[in-house]
Amino acid sequence: MKVVVDQDKCVGAGQCVLLAPDVFDQRDEDGVVVLLQEFPPAELHDDVRQAARVCPALAIELDEQ
Amino acid sequence: MIAVVGASAAGLTAAQTLRREGYTGPLTVIGDEQHMPYDRPPLSKQVLSGVWEPSKVSLPSTVEDVDWKLGVRAVGLDVGGRRLALSTGDSLDYDKLVVATGVSPRRLPSSLAGVHTLRTLDDALAFKEELAAARSVVIVGAGFMGSEVAAVASSLGADVTVVDPLAAPMIRQFGPWLGDLVAKLHADHGVRMRLGVGVSGLVGSGRVSAVELADGTSLPADVVLVAIGSVPNTSWLAGSGLSLTDGVDCDSLCRAAPNVVACGDVASWTHPVQGRRIRVEHRMNATEQGMAAARTLLGKGSPYSPIPYFWTDQYDVKIQAYGTFPVDAVPSVAAGDVGTGRFAAVYVADGRVTGVVGWNLPRETRQLRARIGEPA
C-alpha cells in the first residue's frame, strides 16, 4: 500500500491522526496532514483505509497495487 | 435491488459501503442534479474565491456496477409496496432503500434577479459570476455559510454587509462568546455586521437594488446572498407513512422503516449517548452516517454514536469543532490564548465537557477532543 496525501485539500480535522497515529501527523501551525510513512506496514492497513474513508476532505489516496 | 435516493456525499458513501461490505446485487443511485457526486464545503470558500477550479470538488465516485440516474428526482414512496415514483413518470421497485436527499436552502420571498442561495455547484458558479462584478454585497444570515461568504466577498474587493436578527455571528453554533470574536474578525476586515435586526424586504424592479431592514434602514445591494439555514428535502415523502418530524426520523441504527434507512443532512436519528434524536448538517456526518446506514441495511449495523466534527475557514482563521455545543454550555479557554489569535476552548454543560472549539490551534484542539464526555 502506498499513501498519498493532498495537503491542498486537507482541512486539518485530524481524524487520520486519531485512527493511524503512526502514519499521519498534523503540522503545528495549521493542522495540515503530514505523512509519516508512505508505505505503512500491513498491520496498519485497515486503520489507514478507515482514515482515508472518513477524512472529511477526502485528502488521502491509497494505491493498493 | 437497493436504491439510494440522493447522489451527494451521504448517498455516494452508502453506495460505496454497500459494495465494500459485500453487497453484489443491483444498485441504483438517483440524483436530482446532473452532476456526478461532488463535495459541498469548498463551494462557499475555494470555488467562490476562485482558488479551485470547479472540477476539483468532484468526489471519487468509482463504485462498481451502479446504475446512476442523474437529473432525476424521486417524487413519491410506497413503503409497503417497496416502490419509488420518479420525476420521469417511471416507478422503481426496490428491496431496500437509502434516503439521502439532503436539505435545501431556506429562501426569502423574492423573484428579483441578483438574489442568490448557495447549496449546489451551479448555485456557486452563478453567484461567483455576479460577485465578480458587484460593489455592494448584502448577506442575509450570519451562520457558517454567511460568515464564510462574507470573508470571500470582502477579499474580492466588495463592500460587504451581513445582516442577522441575532446578536452575533454563528451564535446558534457556538453562543455569544465565540460569536463576538467572529464579529470582531469581520470588523477588522472591513465587513459591516448589522446584528439584532431582521430583514423586512428585498427592493428592486426586476433586479435587486437594496435590502430593507426592520428598523427602516435600507442597504444598497448589487447582489444578495440569502443564507438563513436549510430545510430537509422530505416533501417527496409526504404520505409515505415515514415519520418526518425533523427530516426523516430514524432509530439509533438509522432505520426509518423496515428496509429503509436514512443518512446525511436529511436524517435525524436517536443518538445513543445523548439519548435524543438529532440531525447533523455537517460534511463528516454525511460520510460516517452513510457508512452506518449502509451497514444497517446489510444486517451489520450498530448504534450510530459519532462525535461530530465540523469546521469553517474565514480569512486566515480556521475554526474547528468537535462534539456538541448546547445553548447552556459554558466555554473556557483550555489551550493557547485568545489575545494571540490561537486558542482552544472546551464547552461544559451539566458538569461534563460536551465540545471543543479551536481557533487556529488544530493539534491542541484535536488533543482536547479526548475530554468530550468527561467530567469538567
TrEMBL record, chain A:
Keywords: 3Fe-4S, Electron transport, Iron, Iron-sulfur, Metal-binding, Transport. Its cofactor is [3Fe-4S] cluster. It comes from the Bacteria. Residues 1-29 form the 4Fe-4S ferredoxin-type domain. Gene3D superfamilies: 3.30.70.20. The keyword Electron transport applies. The keyword Repeat does not apply. It holds the Pfam family Fer4_15. Transmembrane segments: none annotated. Ferredoxins are iron-sulfur proteins that transfer electrons in a wide variety of metabolic reactions. This is Ferredoxin.
UniProtKB/TrEMBL annotation, chain B:
Keywords: FAD, Flavoprotein, Oxidoreductase. Residues 2-290 form the FAD/NAD(P)-binding domain. Its cofactor is FAD. It comes from the Bacteria. InterPro entries: FAD-oxidoreductase/Apoptosis (IPR050446), FAD/NAD-bd_sf (IPR036188), FAD/NAD-binding_dom (IPR023753), FAD/NAD-linked_Rdtase_dimer_sf (IPR016156), Reductase_C (IPR028202). PANTHER family: APOPTOSIS-INDUCING FACTOR 1, RIESKE DOMAIN-CONTAINING PROTEIN-RELATED. Pfam families: Pyr_redox_2 (PF07992), Reductase_C (PF14759). SUPFAM superfamilies: FAD/NAD(P)-binding domain (SSF51905), FAD/NAD-linked reductases, dimerisation (C-terminal) domain (SSF55424). This is NAD(P)/FAD-dependent oxidoreductase. Residues 309-372 form the Reductase C-terminal domain.
